[in-house]
Design goal:
Homeodomain-like_sf, 45% helix, Arc Repressor Mutant, subunit A, alpha+beta, sequence-specific DNA binding, transcription regulation, 283 residues, DNA-binding transcription factor activity, AraC_lig
């Protein structure tokens, strides 16, 4: 989006963060030496690095090193192999957290690496200060407090990127499109509906072919593919709450649990029951 592009309405923007990823701190302190990415910090999950003092160097295969000065937030929202180290004799004071899997439509617009200078945004300064205060005080319950503050910080960070129009992506353009915006809104609100290409086109007041073409040109994927991505995000959220697979299937537009299980397996690489068991067993 450029500076002249209007922002989507609040209802659609809320859908960006309907399934906000959870966050879990795995490091807090001073880092001087090179630390290779591990399962905890970015090979299998996204990561967020928060710098309070010093300078950090981020290294990724195939890319030039990136130097980041404090106070800053460094967001790598997807599983991405990387190495970090403090620059200079004093190293860097930072906090690192893992992020759970991104859900659509947010996963379609966040870049692989984002650096936010905290001196340029007052809205992020206080949450980050509170995080480091909690980490230093280590009062009882501090880890629970930090993980919730990290999730809040992520929300404020996305707000900042949207407000400054620093994110781009077809979904954002579709949200302000006079024809596509209403379709996205209805897909998000009613994933259980028996959607077809014809019913979506009717909402957009376009022919079937014109709607399909416009959706792909703006969003980047076919409308039924987008619908499936959204339904799977809703399904994962419901499964994580402990709902039965059969009940989840009906809430995301599948007539029976077998059809839902096949779609979920294709999207997630696991059956719904296996995914649910794995995630409910996590602390």
């Amino acid at each position: 989006m450029n500076q002249s592009t209007p922002l989507p309405n609040a209802s659609l923007l809320n859908q960006l963060l309907r399934f906000t990823p959870t966050a879990r701190m795995f490091f807090s302190g001073n880092l001087c030496t090179l630390t290779q990415g591990s399962e905890a910090d970015g090979l299998k999950q996204g990561t967020m690095h928060l710098l309070s003092r010093g300078e950090l160097q981020l290294t990724r295969k195939g890319f030039a090193p990136l130097n980041v000065r404090a106070p800053s937030v460094l967001l790598l929202p997807r599983a991405l192999e990387h190495w970090v180290q403090g620059s200079g004799p004093q190293g860097v004071d930072l906090m690192c957290a893992t992020l759970s899997e991104l859900a659509p439509p947010l996963d379609m617009i966040l870049p692989d690496v984002t650096v936010i200078d905290l001196t340029a945004t007052s809205s992020l300064q206080r949450p980050v200060e509170l995080l480091f205060e909690e980490a230093e005080a280590r009062a009882f319950g501090y880890r629970a407090a930090i993980d919730r503050l990290l999730q809040y910080t992520f929300v404020v960070l996305v707000r900042h990127l949207i407000d400054r129009q620093l994110l781009s992506g077809g979904v954002l353009e579709a949200m302000v499109d006079s024809r596509l915006g209403v379709v996205l809104s209805m897909l998000h609100e009613s994933p259980e509906h028996d959607w077809t290409l014809d019913s979506m086109a009717e909402l957009a007041h376009l022919s079937r072919s014109a709607f399909a073409l416009r959706f792909v040109q703006v969003v980047g994927i076919p409308p039924l593919t987008y619908l499936t991505h959204w339904r799977m995000a809703v399904a994962r959220n419901l499964l994580a709450q402990g709902q039965a697979v059969k009940a989840v299937a009906s809430q995301v537009g599948y007539g029976n649990a077998t059809a839902f299980a096949r779609a979920f397996q294709r999207a997630s690489g696991q059956s719904p029951s296996a995914w649910q068991m794995e995630h409910l067993s996590q602390p």
